[in-house]
Design goal:
CATH superfamily: Aldolase class I
Strand order of the largest sheet: 3-4-7-8-9-10-12-13
Shape: globular
Distance between the termini: 33 Å
CATH class: Alpha Beta
Order of helices and strands: HHEEEHEEEHEHEHEHEEHEHEHHH
Structural class: alpha/beta
Largest sheet: 8 strands, parallel, barrel
Helix content: 25-40%
Number of domains: 1
Mean pLDDT: 96
CATH architecture: Alpha-Beta Barrel
Length: 343
């Protein structure tokens, strides 16, 4: 209840500064208990038992500083990153913008993070703690061999991850989305699986919403052929629907409410392309239990959010979890798994 009172003051701060403040508060706050892994929202995906299908998307905790605090807020899993092999500062500031009138965010952060070794040290320090923590890996902007970067990050992070998320869909690293092309994607995933080894965690692939039908079919086919654990659908968009904010023309990836319909349609496209044979993670414009439920009914086994927390505050995860239980009961489902793809 306190967040609506604090939000006007937080919004007086630059968006990136407010984000750093949020991380600092989570670092010092006493983390609550993670959601029970056997509750009514539990679902098994890619061999992992998720206590609730709702997760924090990558981008919030880029350096794996507060995964346990996020789990304590009611998220069923936390995806940290994107993390690159070497530290990098990212793009020039300002690079993060609230579009309050649109309940949206534009970012052109550029994979700013402290590098793989620093993040790995923090993740090793939490070894043995409960909770599902995915690690989202990327490539350095100036890398001469981006496939090698993903392989290096896979070797480093595989022992520490519940799952690995290969991010080839950020619009803020020049040329990165070209790795979604059929030949490049096949080469990349072969390198990732070789680096992971036969007993490593499942590999998820994060794709862009700005894909043509032929791209969707090719990605779906490769994902199933390679044995991916799931597809994360989707990242931010470079398109611009009608927006009211003065920041509407800023370059970068758009997330939040204006992405909702596009991300939902892309999820449906991948559900059709995979025939329901590959788990999907729905992301983009989710801000309520109804949004999450719609994505689940459209084919998502898991859902993620990030931008909505900017507007709704840290209590959003628990509110969505409660709402999902009510919606399951209303629609006569005994489990989340029963509801997936039933729209």
């Amino acid at each position: 209840m306190i967040y609506p009172l604090l939000r006007p003051f937080l919004f007086l701060l630059d968006a990136e500064r407010a984000h750093r403040l949020a991380l600092a508060m989570l670092r010092i706050a006493r983390a609550g208990q993670p959601v029970r892994p056997s509750g009514p929202l539990a679902i098994r995906v890619a061999g992992i038992d998720f206590p609730t299908p709702l997760g924090m998307a990558a981008g919030f905790d880029k350096d794996a500083e507060v995964p346990d605090a996020l789990l304590g807020l009611g998220f069923g899993f936390a995806e940290v990153g994107s993390i690159t092999p070497l530290p990098q500062a990212g793009n020039p500031k300002p690079r993060l913008f609230r579009l309050a009138e649109d309940r949206a965010v534009i970012n052109r952060m550029g994979f700013n993070n402290g590098g793989g070794e620093a993040a790995a040290a923090r993740l090793r320090a939490r070894a043995g703690k409960p909770g599902v923590v995915g690690i989202n890996v990327g490539a350095n902007k100036d890398s001469a061999n981006r496939v090698a970067d993903y392989a290096a990050m896979t070797r480093l992070m595989a022992p520490l991850a519940s799952y690995l998320a290969v991010n080839i869909s950020s619009p803020n690293t020049p040329g990165l989305r070209a790795l979604q092309d059929e030949g490049a994607l096949t080469e990349l995933l072969d390198a990732v699986f070789d680096a992971r080894g036969p007993s490593g965690p499942p590999v998820f692939l994060k794709v862009a919403p700005d894909l043509e039908p032929a791209d969707i079919d090719a990605i779906a086919r490769i994902a199933m052929d390679k044995g991916l654990g799931a597809l994360i659908v989707s990242n931010t968009t470079i398109t611009r629907p009608p927006l009211r904010s003065r920041h509407a023309n800023e370059s970068g990836g758009l997330s939040g409410e204006p992405l909702r319909d596009m991300a939902l349609q892309r999820l449906r496209d991948f559900r059709k392309a995979t025939g329901g044979r590959l788990p999907l993670v729905g992301v983009g414009g989710i801000a309520s239990a109804q949004d999450a439920w719609q994505r689940i009914r459209a084919g998502a086994s898991l859902v993620q959010l990030y931008s909505a927390v900017v507007y709704e505050g840290p209590g959003l995860a628990r509110r969505i979890n409660r709402g999902l239980i009510d919606l399951m009961t209303r629609d006569g489902f005994a489990s989340i798994a029963e509801a997936v793809g039933t729209e």
